[in-house]
Amino acid sequence: MTRRDVVFPAGRQALYERNRYSPAVRANGLLFVSGQVGSRPDGSPEPDLQAQVRLAFDNLNAVLAAAGCSFADVQDVTVYIVDPEANFEKIWAVVPEYWGEAPYPTLTGVGVTWLYGFQFEIKVVAKLPPATEGV
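C-alpha coordinates predicted for Enamine deaminase RidA (YjgF/YER057c/UK114 family):
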Protein backbone atom coordinates (compact mmCIF):
# COMPACT_ATOMS: atom_id res chain seq x y z
CA MET A 1 0.00 0.00 0.00
CA THR A 2 1.27 3.47 -0.90
CA ARG A 3 1.76 5.84 2.01
CA ARG A 4 -0.24 9.05 1.71
CA ASP A 5 1.73 12.30 1.37
CA VAL A 6 -0.20 14.26 4.01
CA VAL A 7 -0.02 18.02 4.51
CA PHE A 8 -0.63 19.53 7.95
CA PRO A 9 -1.02 23.26 8.57
CA ALA A 10 0.94 24.61 11.53
CA GLY A 11 -0.71 24.16 14.90
CA ARG A 12 -3.64 22.01 13.79
CA GLN A 13 -2.21 18.48 13.63
CA ALA A 14 -3.71 17.43 16.99
CA LEU A 15 -7.18 18.49 15.81
CA TYR A 16 -6.90 16.37 12.67
CA GLU A 17 -5.47 13.40 14.56
CA ARG A 18 -8.29 13.60 17.11
CA ASN A 19 -10.87 13.55 14.31
CA ARG A 20 -8.97 10.92 12.26
CA TYR A 21 -8.55 12.56 8.88
CA SER A 22 -5.86 14.28 6.86
CA PRO A 23 -6.23 17.98 6.12
CA ALA A 24 -4.77 17.46 2.63
CA VAL A 25 -3.04 14.81 0.55
CA ARG A 26 -0.65 15.35 -2.36
CA ALA A 27 -1.09 12.94 -5.27
CA ASN A 28 -0.18 13.07 -8.97
CA GLY A 29 0.50 16.81 -9.01
CA LEU A 30 -2.71 17.66 -7.22
CA LEU A 31 -3.58 18.66 -3.66
CA PHE A 32 -6.82 17.20 -2.32
CA VAL A 33 -7.95 19.32 0.63
CA SER A 34 -10.47 18.03 3.16
CA GLY A 35 -13.47 20.21 3.86
CA GLN A 36 -12.50 23.22 5.93
CA VAL A 37 -14.91 24.84 8.35
CA GLY A 38 -14.83 27.99 10.43
CA SER A 39 -13.36 26.28 13.46
CA ARG A 40 -11.43 27.98 16.18
CA PRO A 41 -8.08 26.47 17.25
CA ASP A 42 -9.88 24.16 19.71
CA GLY A 43 -12.17 22.89 16.93
CA SER A 44 -15.32 24.71 18.09
CA PRO A 45 -17.48 26.59 15.56
CA GLU A 46 -17.22 30.35 15.17
CA PRO A 47 -20.83 31.41 15.99
CA ASP A 48 -21.21 34.38 13.59
CA LEU A 49 -21.94 33.09 10.07
CA GLN A 50 -19.83 35.57 8.10
CA ALA A 51 -16.96 35.29 10.60
CA GLN A 52 -17.29 31.50 10.28
CA VAL A 53 -16.93 31.74 6.48
CA ARG A 54 -13.84 33.96 6.84
CA LEU A 55 -12.32 31.54 9.32
CA ALA A 56 -13.08 28.59 6.97
CA PHE A 57 -11.18 30.40 4.20
CA ASP A 58 -8.36 31.27 6.62
CA ASN A 59 -8.15 27.58 7.61
CA LEU A 60 -8.23 26.58 3.94
CA ASN A 61 -5.48 29.06 3.10
CA ALA A 62 -3.33 27.67 5.93
CA VAL A 63 -3.62 24.17 4.45
CA LEU A 64 -2.88 25.45 0.95
CA ALA A 65 0.15 27.42 2.19
CA ALA A 66 1.49 24.36 4.04
CA ALA A 67 1.60 22.64 0.63
CA GLY A 68 3.19 25.61 -1.14
CA CYS A 69 -0.07 26.63 -2.80
CA SER A 70 -2.48 29.54 -2.72
CA PHE A 71 -6.12 29.94 -3.68
CA ALA A 72 -4.89 30.87 -7.18
CA ASP A 73 -3.87 27.20 -7.59
CA VAL A 74 -7.38 25.93 -6.76
CA GLN A 75 -9.07 24.23 -9.72
CA ASP A 76 -12.23 22.77 -8.17
CA VAL A 77 -14.36 23.92 -5.22
CA THR A 78 -17.22 22.23 -3.41
CA VAL A 79 -19.12 24.21 -0.78
CA TYR A 80 -21.60 22.79 1.68
CA ILE A 81 -24.15 25.18 3.16
CA VAL A 82 -26.70 24.52 5.88
CA ASP A 83 -30.01 26.13 4.88
CA PRO A 84 -28.70 27.66 1.64
CA GLU A 85 -31.94 29.53 0.98
CA ALA A 86 -31.42 31.58 4.15
CA ASN A 87 -27.60 31.64 4.19
CA PHE A 88 -26.33 31.78 0.60
CA GLU A 89 -26.39 35.57 0.14
CA LYS A 90 -24.71 36.18 3.53
CA ILE A 91 -22.00 33.66 2.66
CA TRP A 92 -21.49 34.85 -0.90
CA ALA A 93 -21.03 38.43 0.34
CA VAL A 94 -17.78 37.21 1.99
CA VAL A 95 -16.46 34.95 -0.77
CA PRO A 96 -15.05 37.73 -3.04
CA GLU A 97 -12.65 38.68 -0.23
CA TYR A 98 -10.87 35.35 -0.85
CA TRP A 99 -11.88 34.23 -4.33
CA GLY A 100 -9.58 36.38 -6.47
CA GLU A 101 -9.99 37.40 -10.08
CA ALA A 102 -11.39 35.51 -13.07
CA PRO A 103 -10.94 32.94 -14.39
CA TYR A 104 -12.52 31.26 -11.38
CA PRO A 105 -12.28 27.61 -10.33
CA THR A 106 -15.16 25.24 -10.95
CA LEU A 107 -17.80 25.25 -8.22
CA THR A 108 -20.34 22.82 -6.87
CA GLY A 109 -22.68 24.00 -4.12
CA VAL A 110 -24.49 21.49 -1.94
CA GLY A 111 -27.26 22.27 0.52
CA VAL A 112 -27.05 20.11 3.64
CA THR A 113 -28.95 19.75 6.90
CA TRP A 114 -26.03 19.23 9.25
CA LEU A 115 -22.30 20.05 9.38
CA TYR A 116 -21.30 19.11 12.92
CA GLY A 117 -22.41 22.48 14.30
CA PHE A 118 -21.08 24.54 11.37
CA GLN A 119 -23.03 26.40 8.67
CA PHE A 120 -20.41 26.36 5.89
CA GLU A 121 -17.70 24.03 4.64
CA ILE A 122 -15.33 24.38 1.67
CA LYS A 123 -13.43 21.53 0.00
CA VAL A 124 -10.98 22.06 -2.87
CA VAL A 125 -8.62 20.41 -5.30
CA ALA A 126 -5.55 22.48 -6.20
CA LYS A 127 -2.77 22.04 -8.75
CA LEU A 128 0.57 21.81 -6.98
CA PRO A 129 3.25 24.15 -8.27
CA PRO A 130 5.99 22.06 -9.95
CA ALA A 131 8.54 22.74 -7.19
CA THR A 132 6.22 21.29 -4.51
CA GLU A 133 5.03 18.09 -6.20
CA GLY A 134 5.97 15.14 -4.05
CA VAL A 135 7.65 17.30 -1.40
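Strands lie at 5-7, 24-27, 30-37, 74-82, 106-112, 120-127.
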